[in-house]
């Protein structure tokens, strides 16, 4: 019985080690340049226009190669987006920051050994909402499309630039959609 258990453990460890060499796991962090596009916000009969804000993102990333020139790249990130709303003649701005758990699932097309094109959908789940004036209620789910460029600096270190455009409304009452430019740095273990 002990020999069978030891044999099964050796087979499991060997199998997991083989798969660990195929699937790369890592971490990434970076800067968001986010805005909310669409209709302007009206508060107390004052029309506010949106301006982009700078925020951050961080999380886990995986790469599942399917040959030399193609891979899937799923990620789980915390991403802070939103906008700053300004109005002419009004002293106080409205800051709207939304925190999402985002799950992009990207097709990674390797253009060379260094560069890749990343394309795919992104699902986002609202986890925090910081605003200094009560605006329209944000929706708890946001769907978007992502496109970007990846750069392999070394075998483990990578850089990414990406644009994510919201395809669904970010608010229940206003016609606004999230958009964000992300610049990231990461490391595969």
TrEMBL record:
<feature type="domain" description="Outer membrane protein beta-barrel">
    <location>
        <begin position="23"/>
        <end position="168"/>
    </location>
</feature>
<dbReference type="Pfam" id="PF13568">
    <property type="entry name" value="OMP_b-brl_2"/>
</dbReference>
<protein>
    <recommendedName>
        <fullName>Outer membrane protein beta-barrel domain-containing protein</fullName>
    </recommendedName>
</protein>
<dbReference type="InterPro" id="IPR025665">
    <property type="entry name" value="Beta-barrel_OMP_2"/>
</dbReference>
<dbReference type="InterPro" id="IPR011250">
    <property type="entry name" value="OMP/PagP_B-barrel"/>
</dbReference>
<keyword id="KW-0732">Signal</keyword>
<feature type="signal peptide">
    <location>
        <begin position="1"/>
        <end position="20"/>
    </location>
</feature>
